Amino acid sequence: MVKKKVDRLDWWREARFGMFIHWGLYAVPAGVWKGEDNPGLGEWIMGRLQIPVTEYEKLAKDFDPVKFDARAWVKLAKDAGMKYLIITSKHHDGFAMFDSKCSDYDIVDATPWGKDPMKALAKECAKAGIKLGFYYSQSQDWHDPDGMGNGWDFKDEKKKDFDTYLKHKCIPQLTELLTAYGPISVIWFDTPCKITQQQSLRLKRHVHKLQPDCLVSGRIGNELGDYGSLGDNQRPPGAVEGDWETPCTLNNTWAFKTKDKNWKSVKVLLELLASCAGKGVNYLLNVGPTAEGVIPKASVDRLKAVGDWIKVNGEAIYGTTGSPFPYEHDWGRITCKKGKLYLLIIKWPRGTFVLPGLRNRVKGARMLGDKRTTVTVTQSHSKTTDAHIIELTLPRKKPDTYVSVVELSIVGTADADQMPLQQPDGSVNLAVHMATKRGPKSVCVGRHGSLEGWKTTSTSLGWAFNMHRPGAFRVIVETVLNGDAKDQFGTHEVAVNVGRQSTKGKAGRKDMVEDRGDNDWRIVESDIGTITVNKPGLCKLSLKALRLDKKANAGLTAAGVRLVPIRP
Ligand code: GLC
Asked: Which of 85, 96, 526, 532 could connect to 507 by a Cys-Cys bridge, CB 3.0–4.6 Å?
């Protein structure tokens, strides 16, 4: 018998959900510097305010996490349904949160507490069966004269020698992390900045030499990660091919900030989890402990609620792959594995639930949150239109407040019609990767699921689909924006044509993204008017740019067009 080759990523694909922990000296100011509230991310306080190294270093004396409890942290992750835990071993500020022999700028040597929390975490993770990984800022190191990012203490860029920093700090510290704490599942590199391909490769080889099974995150730079990293807080748009992870916050910051109380609701968290799983993307959800070593209660409460949901519905997440459909459904998300298709329903229907386009035979259906109530399945196929329809009778009461899962037992592996289909509620979702593109070849769907390089009016997109329930529709153009990259913002003028009908409006509007000083990725929905389709049958829709905002460096980052029926 031929043994199946074990892929480094097997456990990671199975896991789908992990805990991120941002913990370091920045938890001491917790967003407030000299009495003033800092609007940015907690762990960026040194960089944002350009605090001199000599001043920032003093924070170590006040870092005394007497309430740190590795067992409680790991238990929280486990109870939340998370399968791995990634903690900041060194963030951009350069402070090592482990016992490092390369410098005294570490938690054991520089703080009154004097302990190595990674030792305790490694032990508890091993006991609980949680995979431990380390975040390590490989390029930015604001404490090291040769590291990247600190232009206020170390002004002369010409004097900097990044290779020296790699040799004296980065690589030796990686060796420490990979030799003193048992098996490490991931080295979570971040913000590659100007790291060269050769340097990224050197780090990757070093990690794999010491621990061949250890993964390196996509942010190692130069596309060398074992898996890709989506933007911070990015709900994956479009189609996501390959292995990806999206890191997400519970509020607006990663590291603890006293003033940040903008907690996401359990509903939003579960929808994000479903949205990631629905694209086969891992969800890495962050907590920011205080300088005392306590994970804020608001975070604990939310993770517990997520855990309660996972206990019932985990089958729809673990070991699944994304939806077999090439577009998203307005009612919720889909995941699947061999013989199963999971409908993660966010908008619970009244009465019958209709799913068009699945070609597999369905053997039965049940609700994970209420296995006693029967769900009847009716399946039909029209020979003339080749339309496959599945109808489910669902009870009025949804089994879960936020996301209710219906499991379909199917014959074989999920096989869905790849044509855009009008949904039973009349809506049509047209993602950019499903479009026929006109114009320069260089404009293409990028890693973030949206178009990259659409900077002239010579590009346009077209889709064909069958309209069986004509009527009036609102036309929504979706674009993807990074909240931190102000140079990407713009107000473009676009037009959508369906047959002879046309509507135009503004897309990617600046005013739709509030300035929170963070680096979240958002899908911006721009309503560009209405369109009426009079006859059923084949429909052709096109998206054109009439005028592109020159100030928006990324161009028109379109992710798709949605038609939403207007009810009389
Ligand atoms: C960004 C930030 C960083 C944070 C990370 C989490 O790259 O620079 O502060 O650690 O995102 O994904």
From this structure: 526
